[in-house]
Amino acid sequence: MNVLKLTLLALAFISLHAHAKEDRNLAVTQVNNAVSDKRIALVIGNGAYANSPLKNPVNDAKDIAIKLRKLGFDVVERNNLQTKQIGGALREFRSKLSPGAVALVFYAGHGLQIKGINYLPAVDADINSEEDVPNQSLGVNQIMDVLDDARTRLNLVFLDACRNNPYASRSFRSADRGLARISAPSGTLISYATKPGSVAADGNGRNGLYTSKLLAQMDSNIQIELTLKRVVTEVKAASQGKQEPWMEGSIEGDFCFGGCAASGGNTQVASLVPMLAPVGGGLSLEDIKKQQETRGQWDKWQAGMQADFDKIVSLNAEPDLQITAWERFLSSYAQDNPLSGGDEELRAQAQGRKQQAEERKRYEQGERNKKVNPNDIPFEQMRNMVADYYNTRSEWVGTFTLDAVIRWRLEEIDSGRKRGHVEYRYVPVPGNRMGRKDTGVDQRTFDFVWTNGSWRVTSMGGHMSGRL
């Protein structure tokens, strides 16, 4: 009898242990299935707009793309998308999608709505009226059509694009602030950086406010709806209620960026499963703090680079001094910023402006080196120069004024200097202080010099005897 009892207890323990193992296998299977879906993402960051450039979108897109690749996404990444590249980006994204896949779209940059339709302008868009927008922008409706045609299982769209419309001062009849609400395909969840019709800030750090909070939540294994609610809470708190992200649409089934943790399970059975003792423990954040400090230093360095660039642009100096200024700039900021592409763009612009200054210097030097022709002062120009010089002499101001040049003769003193023998007629200024009323003819010598690309009078000599 005792043997029978022992046998039954052993069988019960074996059965319970088998069930516990099955539960653990089921939990692992559920988590693995959550991340085994084919995951495809289109990530775009537009910042280098000719009109109203933005600092953060390219950083936002790069960081989101890195995060998504770590989470198993096949990413189509485009930064500073130009008009001619829109079709190619959509084609590549469409080619990777397949029925049952998980599709994700992230966009950071300028966004605007025209008559309730949302558009994401290319960085080279030259928009002067509403009619220009559809042909020079990526339409959000185009993205939705691609997702709908692909029959994906689940679609996630993140739009950090509710900045102010940079073209609002143009001929727009119906442009409103922010983005409009979207009629999304079934199984689509859309997250806006701020609620429709409102405007979000670009941000002061490496990332925009919305994107920074989204990145912080993407490693979790909680449901996407709860993830986005946490993003809303964090953004509202950081902006003191000035910016409130918005979510609309719905999905079927579960999605978690890091794979969804299994729920349920038999706690009584789990207590029978042997567990390993904890290893390690204790958390050090020194490396993260140092990394944060380094990023702050790079942000400060980039801001200083932009400020120095603007100083030189506003410098009103001769070409040779501008060349020196740009050479100093390029030497001071030769180091590559690992956190931003803005330094590369500024160096390219500085190099271009330096070349322009060099071209101006060569041109002006060539003008100064032109051979002087003794007869290359046009009569009208000579007459105006003589009149201006004569009429500003203190002894005649308010008394006489030069009326006409009768005749003249030039002789060359040396290269770039001439002497003119001029016969002219002067007339009294009406009501002059000396009461002079006589009109006369006089002859004098005038010295001319070629300087800074033009002739000017440097002195007037005494009376000449004889006739010209």
What can you tell me about this protein's structure?
The chain has 468 residues and is α/β, with parallel strands linked by helices. The protein folds into three domains: 19-270, Rossmann fold, CATH 3.40.50; 287-368; 379-463, Nuclear Transport Factor 2, Chain: A. It has helices at residues 2-36, 57-70, 86-96, 140-150, 209-217, 224-238, 267-270, 286-313, 319-332, 342-368, 379-391; strands spanning 39-45, 73-79, 102-108, 112-114, 117-121, 137-139, 154-160, 175-176, 188-192, 246-250, 400-414, 417-428, 440-451, 454-463. Helix 2 links the parallel strand 1 (39-45) and strand 2 (73-79).
Q: Determine the strand fraction and express it as a percent band.
A: 15-25%
Query: What are the low-pLDDT stretches, counting only 5+ consecutive residues below 50?
Result: 16-35, 264-273, 371-375
CATH top level assignment of the largest domain: Alpha Beta
* Structural class designation: alpha/beta
Percent helix, as a range, is 25-40%
Instruction: Choose one word for the global shape.
Output: elongated
Mean pLDDT: 80
Strand order of the largest sheet: 2-1-3-7-9-10
Radius of gyration computed on alpha carbons: 39 Å
Number of strands: 14
